[in-house]
Amino acid sequence: MDSETQKLFDLRLSGLLGYNAECRERMLARHSELLALLRSRGIAVVRAHYDGCGDSGQLEPCECFAAQNIAADDQLTEAERGRIDDHFYDLLECRHAGWENNDGGYGDFTWTIQSDELTHDHNDYYTEVDNTLHEGLDDIAGKTGQGAQS
After folding, report:
1. What are the start-end ranges of the H helices in 41-147?
2. What are 70-88's pLDDT values in tens digits?
3. Residue ranges of domains in the chain, CATH in brackets
4. Residue closest to 38 by CA, chosen among 84, 103, 90, 97
5. pTM
């Protein structure tokens, strides 16, 4: 790699690492605040699903539930739910940056508020290739090994 290419590579890598660090800082900074908000509103569980591929992805709006799995989305404003979605986006970027690229990935977040247990189930899509190389026609013509006749 020539020195110009190395400089560009280093710049790009530092940008990616910087973005990841920013996501991590935002996520850690807002976690306790969101936890307190959700507890104060009687939210027991927050769930969100995401899916993406081909350089495009989306996080579905989070769903909030009170005890006994009763829907509680109305306990939060749209702006508050947006902050929770941002929290999940940042966590996703910290753990699986580029999840939406190429074949992509999908997954689910489940945040149990009382115990502050946050599970993240992530799946990567991938293309698998099974290759077989054939040379000549010996396998079809029935010729085997060194004793084969022409």
Report:
1. 78-96, 138-141
2. 999 999 999 999 999 999 9
3. 3-126 (3.30.500)
4. 84
5. 0.75
